[in-house]
Amino acid sequence: MTTKFKLYLIAPIIAVFMAQALPAVAAEDMAGGLNEVLVKGLEESNWQETADEIYMWIKTNKTDFLVVDVRPGEKGYSAGHIPGAIHIPYNDMLTTVSLKRLPKDKKIILVCATGQLANLPVVPLRALGYDAYTMMFGYAAWAKGFGGGEMMKVVVEKANSKNYPMEK
Fold first, then answer.
1. pLDDT: is 37 or 113 the higher one?
2. Running DSSP on this structure, what letter comes out for residue 90?
3. Would you say residue 9 has pLDDT above 80?
4. Are 89 and 72 in contact (CB under 8 A)?
């Protein structure tokens, strides 16, 4: 087994152990703090920006934002990314090294393939004082023929053909 694979196996076990080891008061404080941020989501458009908005910011040379490509691994970023974007994989976002790369005086725009992974670090980043947002639908909304968009089409078509049940 590779070291990386072993880490993926061990990390969840350590996380569960640490979560159980936290005193109940600390866990409640953390949950309360995160909830204070979370309840603001509706009134703040769930911290999402569109590809059109970000394109206009780039086109007009705005400097009050930073695009962060959060796709895991270097391959996607190296294959192409939004102009000026830096790469910090979503699963490394909350490390001390990564946080030092993020300015607190700019809007942080997180972007992944479809917009799903980028949502994971938004609430903790906001709780830490960052002005974090995601780009709605990720690179699927940015790049013509992007694989994430094609994947989304397949999933939607499959759901339409399956007609999974919904309760009312």
1. 113
2. G
3. no
4. yes
| C-alpha to C-alpha distance for 144 and 141, rounded to whole angstroms | 8
SS3 40: coil
- Report phi then psi at 132, rounded to 5: -95, 140
Residues in the chain: 168
What mean pLDDT is reported for the chain?
Answer: 84
- Pick the residue with more confidence: 15 or 89? 89
Residue among 62, 56, 57, 92 nearest 74 (CA): 92
How far lies 13's CA from each of 18, 131, 164, in Å?
9, 31, 34
Question: Where would I find the beta strands (DSSP E) of 12-98?
Answer: 48-49, 65-69, 86-87
So what CATH class is 46-158? alpha beta
pLDDT of residue 115 exceeding 90? no
Q: What would the pLDDT profile of 152-168 be if each residue is shown by its tens digit?
A: 778 788 888 887 888 99
DSSP track, 104-167: TTSEEEEE-SSSSGGGTTHHHHHHTT-EEEEETTGGGGTSTT-HHHHHHHHHHHHHHHH-----
**Neighbour count for residue 35 (Cβ, 10 Å):** 12
Q: Helix, strand, or coil here: 87?
A: strand
